[in-house]
Each structure stands twice: as structure tokens, then as C-alpha cells.
Design brief:
The protein has about 220 residues and is mostly helical. Helix content is about 40%, strand content about 5%. The chain has helices at about 15-35, 40-45, 65-95, 130-135, 135-140, 160-165, 170-175, 200-205, and strands spanning about 115, 180, 185, 190, 210-215. GO terms for molecular function: ligand-gated sodium channel activity.
């Protein structure tokens, strides 16, 4: 003979209220998530973050305020699209801008000319005394193999400026042709300025011949 058991469980009233509240919260969340979006322009404008559109689409009749907002919105939108299109077209064309300023001078000033020669001195113009004084610079042996004996070392005190001017390369031997502003010039049109470094200062840097025109060639 089958036996049937019947069990009855009684929940407390507070537990039943808590459970009902949780079920109600779940139903409200589901309803909010499933609520359809606004279908009219007024609802879209109110929920949109686009600046000014909520002042255009409002409930009621269209007034002056909405008209002004609409004109301002369309003008700003048109300006934005124009600037964006202009920048895109300019970028695709890859333009190159070159600015030139031309100035006409009635008379050009002849520039300074500096001639640097790795051979500071002409060996043919050096004397035994010069070679002796310039031994640390040139490393040249004496022309006279019997020279530079202790008894023959009675050389005068060296004048380095004189040695440079006398044994340096002469312009009339180096200048092959010269033309400035359509006029021919020669070695006589140039002058060698005085040493600006005071004698040995020139030797410390390099032996050079700096030339300037005595008078500008027209």
C-alpha cells in the first residue's frame, strides 16, 4: 500500500517581502532596457549631445528663437564642411610655396677673397735663415748641406711678417683671370691688408692671402 508524505514549509513574512522586492527590481530593469528609443525629432534632440539641436526641435509651434538657432546651426555646419573639404583638397594636391624677395642694387660691392694654400711658403724664395727659423713649421732640410753648423748660426732675429710677405705666394702669379660686373680686373686692383692677428697670429691658424679691391670696379 503506497504511503504519501505531505510537507508544509512556512516562510517568514520578511523573507517573502524581500524576495518580492528583488523580483520587482529585476522587472523594472528589464523594462528600462527594453524601452523603445524616442521616435520623434523632439525626443532625439533632447537626448542628443549635438550642440544647439535641442533648441531647434522643440514641442509646439516654430518661433523666432528656433529659427535663429536653426540658421546658426546650418551656418556653422556649412563652414565646418567647407573647411574640411578645403583642407582635404589642399592635402591631396601637395602644394609647395616658395617666397622670393628680389632687390635691385645699383652697385654691387666686391666681396673679400681669401686664398688658402696648403703650401704656405715658396721653397724657391726661402733662404737658409728662413728655413732655420721655420724648421718647426716646414720640416725642410737646409739648402746648403754644409750649413747650419754651430759656427754659422749667426742669423738675425726672424721677422715673421716679412717672411710671409716675401716667401708667400704672389697674386700676380696665381691670378689667371678676373672679371667683376662685366669689367676685367688684374692683380694691381687688389691689396693685401695688414696682419690683423699681430705677426705670429697668422701662423697659428693658416697662411692666407686676403685680397680686397682698392677701388670698386664699376
Amino acid at each position: 500500500m503506497p504511503i504519501e508524505f505531505v510537507c508544509k514549509i512556512k516562510f517568514a513574512e520578511e523573507d517573502e517581502k524581500q524576495k518580492g522586492k528583488q523580483d520587482g527590481d529585476k522587472e523594472s530593469l528589464i523594462e528600462e532596457s527594453c524601452s523603445p528609443p524616442a521616435k520623434d525629432l523632439v525626443g532625439f534632440a533632447n537626448s542628443s549631445s549635438l550642440h544647439g539641436i535641442n533648441h531647434i526641435f522643440v514641442s509646439g509651434r516654430l518661433g523666432i528663437r528656433q529659427t535663429l538657432w536653426a540658421l546658426a546651426f546650418l551656418a556653422s555646419l556649412a563652414l565646418f564642411l567647407y573647411q574640411a573639404a578645403k583642407c582635404a583638397i589642399s592635402y591631396l594636391e601637395h602644394p609647395h610655396v616658395t617666397a622670393l624677395n628680389e632687390e635691385a642694387s645699383p652697385e654691387m660691392v666686391f666681396p673679400a677673397v681669401t686664398i688658402c694654400n696648403i703650401n704656405r711658403f715658396r721653397f724657391s724664395a726661402l733662404t737658409d735663415a728662413d728655413i732655420y727659423h721655420l724648421a718647426n713649421l716646414t720640416g725642410l732640410p737646409p739648402k746648403n748641406r754644409d750649413g747650419h753648423k754651430p759656427t754659422d748660426l749667426d742669423y738675425p732675429a726672424p721677422d715673421m711678417q716679412d717672411i710671409f710677405n716675401r716667401t708667400g705666394h704672389q697674386l700676380d702669379e696665381m691670378l689667371k683671370s678676373c672679371n667683376f660686373s662685366g669689367q676685367n680686373c688684374s692683380a694691381e686692383d687688389f691689396s693685401v691688408p695688414p696682419d690683423r692677428d699681430g705677426g705670429l697670429g697668422t701662423m697659428k691658424v693658416t697662411a692666407f692671402l686676403e685680397l680686397h679691391l682698392k677701388q670698386p670696379v664699376n
